[in-house]
Write a structure and sequence with these properties.
InterPro entries: ABC3_permease_C, MacB_PCD, Macrolide_Exporter_MacB. The chain is of the alpha+beta class and about 375 residues long. About 55% of the residues lie in helices and about 15% in strands. The chain contains 11 helices and 10 strands. The chain has a 6-stranded mixed beta barrel with strand order 2-3-8-5-7-6. Strand 2 and strand 3 form a beta hairpin.
Length: about 375
C-alpha cells in the first residue's frame, strides 16, 4: 500500500475530494491554474525584487564602510590641517585613515598630453588594489595610474610620465573601480603625498571594517571637530545603501501586492467552481445527509476539495517559480543558486501557503451552503 493510499484511509475526505474533482478534470484544472498563476506571480515578483537588491548591493560593493570628511567651505574652511587629521586618527577606534591632497595637472607621455586629476595619498594600498605592479601600503616614490587612463595612454608598469614638470615612474596600474566610489581613481594618477608643495588636505577617507564602525567613527569625528563650529562635513555612503535597501523593501512589498491580486482572482474562480460543483451534486449530498452524514462531514468534504485544488496549484506554482528564479538569477547575476537563498525560499513558501489559504477560504461559503440545505429539499429538486 502506498503512502498516498494510507493517507486516503486515514483522511477519507481527501479520497472523496480527489474523486469529486476528477469528475470534471477541465474545470478543476482551470481552477488550479488560477492558483498556479497566483503563486507564480507572488514568488517570482518577490524573487525579482531580491535579485534587483542583490545586484544593486553588488554594484555598490563595500562602500557602506567608508566615510568622507571634507572641510566645510560654507563656513570658510578650505583645508584640513595636520591637527585635524591627528584628531580623526585619535577618535577612529577601528579602520584606516587616509588623508588626501588633490590637484589637476597636465600629464605628458611622449607626444600624448592630457589633463588628469592627481591625488596625493600616503597609503593607497588601503583603498585600492593593482592589476599590474603593486599598490603599496606606503607610496614613497613613483605613481599609480588608473585603469581607464592607463588604457587610453597605453601605459604599462615601468613607463615614465610627466605631471606638469615632475617625472614619475609608473609602479602600478590600479584595478578598475566599478559602481559608486568616494574616490574614483579610474582616470586619475596617485603620487606620494610629499609630492605636493601645499600643506593641508582636501579630504580624509576613513575605511572601517563594517558599516556600524563607520557610523560610530562619523559620530565621533563630528563631536570632536564640530564641537564649537561646523568645521567639517561628513559624507557616509552607508546612508545610501540603507536608503537603497529601504527602497527595494518597498518595491518588493508593492510587487508582492500586485501578485496577490491574481491569487484573489483565483480564489473567486475556485468559489465559482465549488458553487457549481455543489449545485450539480445537490441530490448526492442530500442522500449523504439522509443516511446520517453530519453537516460537519459535508463541510470537511467540500473544504478538502478546495484545499486539494490549492495544494496542487501551489505545488506546481512553486516548481514553476523555482524555474523562473533559476533563469532570472542566471541572466541577471550569473548565479542561479541564489534562487535558493533563504529570503527567496520564504517568498515561495508564503506564496504556497497564501494559495492554499485562499482556496480553503473560497470553499467556505459553498461548503456551508451545501451542508445547511435540508436533505428533503435536496432530494426533491
Amino acid at each position: 500500500m502506498s503512502a498516498l493510499d494510507r493517507l486516503y484511509r486515514q483522511v477519507p475526505a481527501l479520497l472523496m475530494a480527489r474523486r469529486n474533482l476528477s469528475r470534471n478534470r477541465l474545470r478543476s484544472g482551470l481552477a488550479a491554474l488560477g492558483i498556479i498563476i497566483g503563486v507564480l506571480a507572488i514568488a517570482s515578483l518577490g524573487m525579482f525584487g531580491t535579485t534587483l537588491r542583490t545586484g544593486a548591493t553588488a554594484e555598490l560593493g563595500g562602500i557602506g564602510n567608508e566615510i568622507q570628511i571634507s572641510p566645510n567651505a560654507e563656513e570658510g574652511f578650505e583645508r584640513l590641517t595636520d591637527r585635524d587629521v591627528a584628531d580623526i586618527r585619535r577618535v577612529t577606534d577601528e579602520g584606516e585613515v587616509v588623508p588626501i591632497r588633490q590637484e589637476t595637472a597636465t600629464l605628458t607621455r611622449g607626444d600624448d598630453r592630457t589633463i588628469a586629476t592627481v591625488y596625493g595619498i600616503e597609503n593607497p594600498g588601503v583603498l585600492y588594489e593593482a592589476s599590474e605592479g603593486q599598490a603599496p601600503e606606503r607610496l614613497r616614490q613613483g605613481a599609480l595610474v588608473g585603469s581607464s587612463l592607463a588604457e587610453r595612454l597605453e601605459l604599462q608598469v615601468g613607463n615614465r610620465i610627466t605631471l606638469d614638470n615632475e617625472s614619475y615612474r609608473v609602479v602600478g596600474i590600479l584595478e578598475e573601480q566599478d559602481g559608486i566610489s568616494l574616490l574614483n581613481p579610474n582616470g586619475a594618477v596617485i603620487v606620494p603625498l610629499e609630492s605636493f608643495d601645499e600643506s593641508g588636505y582636501s579630504q580624509v577617507v576613513v575605511r572601517s571594517p563594517s558599516g556600524t564602525a563607520a557610523n560610530e567613527t562619523a559620530v565621533a569625528v563630528r563631536e570632536e571637530l564640530n564641537d564649537r563650529e561646523e568645521k567639517v562635513t561628513i559624507f557616509e555612503l552607508g546612508s545610501i545603501t540603507e536608503g537603497i535597501n529601504q527602497f527595494f523593501g518597498i518595491l518588493n512589498a508593492f510587487l508582492i501586492g500586485i501578485g496577490s491580486i491574481s491569487l484573489v482572482v483565483a480564489g473567486v474562480a475556485i468559489l465559482n467552481v465549488m458553487l457549481m460543483s455543489t449545485i450539480e451534486r445537490r441530490q448526492e449530498i442530500g442522500v449523504l445527509r439522509a443516511v446520517g452524514v453530519q453537516k460537519l462531514d459535508v463541510v470537511k468534504m467540500i473544504l478538502a476539495e478546495a484545499g486539494l485544488l490549492g495544494f496542487v496549484g501551489g505545488f506546481l506554482g512553486a516548481v514553476l517559480s523555482v524555474i523562473a528564479g533559476l533563469v532570472l538569477n542566471q541572466v541577471v547575476l550569473s548565479d542561479p543558486l541564489l534562487t535558493f537563498a533563504p529570503v527567496n525560499l520564504m517568498y515561495i513558501g508564503l506564496a504556497v501557503v497564501f494559495g492554499i489559504v485562499t482556496s480553503v477560504l473560497s470553499g467556505l461559503y459553498p461548503a456551508w451552503k451545501a451542508a445547511s440545505e435540508r436533505p428533503v429539499e435536496s432530494l426533491r429538486k
